[in-house]
């Protein structure tokens, strides 16, 4: 039984390495799905709590070291102090550069640019006016929530590691006062 288990583990590792090689190379295409954990920074962190989301990813191999990427995702941001919450829809393009310089990619650097459509809802629990971030907000009569949406250009540097079909990365989303540290895990498969 132990020998069978060891053989299955070796087969899984070889298949994983072969899958990783299949997505890095000229003209090779791959897609993936993933999950994201977002930690808000700056002023954005004053309004929302931790974000949880998902995304779809497309990659095209320029050569053995460079992948062009496209990504669409959605993140829901938890309430902060029972007053405000938010969501973001992300549309990104960019690239990955293989830092491992080996046949099997491992560590890579990543840069993405795109649009974040950010929506924030401020709740007024039993109070006609609330002081939020140093500003007094007075809702229209009878209103309990105020929602605002804004689209922002974002710049996202990051680093990651790909082992077989599993891709894990850490990114920092930069856009003025809307920033977050994003921890991503994705399953990538060749097309």
Characterize the structure shown.
The structure is a single chain. This protein is mainly beta and 191 residues long. It is 15% helix and 62% strand. The chain has helices spanning 2-23, 42-47, and strands at residues 29-41, 48-61, 66-80, 84-98, 107-123, 130-132, 135-137, 145-163, 166-173, 179-190. An 8-stranded antiparallel beta barrel has the order 1-2-3-4-5-8-9-10. A two-stranded antiparallel sheet has the order 6-7. A hairpin with a 2-residue loop joins strand 8 (145-163) and strand 9.
DSSP strand tally: 10
Biggest sheet descriptor: 8 strands, antiparallel, barrel
The stretches of 5 or more residues where confidence is low (pLDDT under 50) are 7-20
Helix content: 10-25%
> Mean of residue pLDDT?
80
Structural class from helices and strands? mainly beta
Outline:
The protein has 191 residues and is mainly β. The protein has two helices and ten strands.
Topology, please?
Elements: H1 2-23, E1 29-41, H2 42-47, E2 48-61, E3 66-80, E4 84-98, E5 107-123, E6 130-132, E7 135-137, E8 145-163, E9 166-173, E10 179-190
Antiparallel strand pairs: 1-2, 1-10, 2-3, 3-4, 4-5, 5-8, 6-7, 8-9, 9-10
């Amino acid at each position: 039984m132990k020998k069978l288990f060891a053989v299955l583990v070796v087969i899984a590792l070889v298949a994983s390495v072969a899958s990783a090689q299949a997505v890095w190379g000229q003209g090779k295409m791959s897609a993936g799905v993933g999950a994201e954990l977002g930690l808000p920074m700056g002023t954005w962190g004053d309004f929302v709590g931790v974000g949880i989301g998902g995304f779809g990813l497309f990659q095209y191999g320029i050569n053995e070291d460079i992948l062009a990427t496209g990504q669409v995702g959605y993140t829901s941001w938890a309430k902060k102090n029972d007053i405000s919450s938010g969501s973001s829809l992300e549309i990104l393009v960019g690239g990955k550069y293989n830092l491992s310089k080996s046949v099997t990619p491992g560590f890579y650097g990543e840069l993405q640019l795109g649009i974040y459509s950010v929506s924030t809802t401020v709740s007024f629990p039993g109070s006609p006016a609330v002081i939020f971030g140093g500003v007094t907000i007075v809702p229209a009569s009878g209103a309990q929530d105020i929602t605002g949406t804004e689209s922002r250009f974002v710049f996202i540097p990051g680093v990651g590691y790909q082992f077989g079909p599993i891709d894990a990365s850490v990114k920092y989303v930069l856009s003025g006062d809307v920033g977050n540290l994003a921890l991503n895990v994705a399953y990538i498969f060749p097309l």
